[in-house]
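Thread: quick sanity check before group meeting

JM: Hey all, I'm pulling together slides for Thursday and realized we never actually wrote out the predicted structure for the chain we discussed last week. Dropping the sequence here so it's in one place. If anyone has concerns about the input, flag it before I start.
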Amino acid sequence: MTTDPAAVAAAELPFARGLPVFGHAFGLARNPLALVARLAREHGGAARFRVLGRDLVAIDDPALARHVLQEKVDSFPRSFHYRQSRVILGDGLLTQEGAGWRRARRMMQPAFRSDPVRDVATATARCWDAVRDRWLACAARGEVVDARVEIQRLSLDGIMAALCGITPGVEDADRFGSMVRDALLEVRKLNNAVIRLPAWARPRQVATLARIRYALDAFLGPVVDARINAPEGRDILSALVRAKDEAGMAFSRSELLDQTKTLFGAGFETTATGLVWALCEVMDRPGLCDAIAEEARAADLEGEISGLALERISLARRVIEETLRLNPPVYTLGRDVLVDDVHEGRRIPRGSTLLISIWGMHRGPAWGADADRFDPDRWLPERNPPRHAYMPFAAGRHTCIGMYFAQVEMRVALALMCRDFRFAWAPGARRPGMRPQVTAAASGPVRVVISRR
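JM (edit): ok, ran it. Output follows.
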């Protein structure tokens, strides 16, 4: 392999020393969000570090991130963190690369354009009706509600209705939600293991992974079969059943099952996490909840929700965008380096793994001296926010296919919640900390007292 002369002349990235042998292994396992963001920030946007002999690079420089994710994407495939998800999720968009990924993405993209996905707004509103009835009863009894659990149920109901055209009961929703969370947690254990053992040396974990995959397949398999037999529906899975590639071939059953599992795995927990943090931000500012409620009442969020109604809940949109800036559910993106590369005179060494800190980038210098302050008005058109430094759904060709889906679901859910209820922290409760696992989730219950408007 010929080395680019520019790479030879380029400056090495700063090196952040860690412990002998282990390097930064323990810090990465304990809090990957904090470690990657700190190393990048302390070393001017990018820093090399080691974990048990593996070479890694922490990045929070927006220009370098764009270079990796958009300008030189073929040189930086997704890292092993994504590939290890295959043991549970199979070959979906999250784990595929190359020709298989391009075929699947082209076939799936029409189902996620703005018009079909607008149905998620109506699906979310319908799912909200059941949550509202449950919350009305809680408000009447003066009960404290764990909003984290309730929002996870709402998010799961919404994604199942829009993706599969079904609304499960509370028991089924809780069971499936637990399966998805267990699956993602097991994948995180694989990714963050200090010592990566072969499969034969961890039989208990292998058995757990197989059990979770079987349970997910058993739950979603009948749903996929129903859509294959009756593909005329408006839900996204029906659209995927009808999709054809350039040769006129449809997805096989196994491909449909893997893509459906991937959409749930990538979309359910991230959407729920973002909405939980949005409610926390709103509860810290009671006047903000009232303003969102007034806007939601003026919009028509009943029945089939129109694009005009979505435009009218612009404050809810700005609150979601600012929440995703300060509390991005996906806090790090991993990319492998196939060839030596140079960006702005700095060498990106072949064979290393890049960890792009979305968390650090969203709080970086591009956002000004008050980058840590929650301010939804940053997203007013006249404020011209630095979108080059904002990528809660990644960037480039691997931008999350469900980006618009998630944005609409969160925006509508927040508007409806504020329209129908007021929220306050329960006596003695406070905002939980963050526990970075698969997503940057709340570390404990979000204990809330709800009152009807």
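AS: nice. Residues 28 and 436 are 11 Å apart (CA to CA). The chain is about 55% helix and 10% strand.
JM: adding both to the slides.
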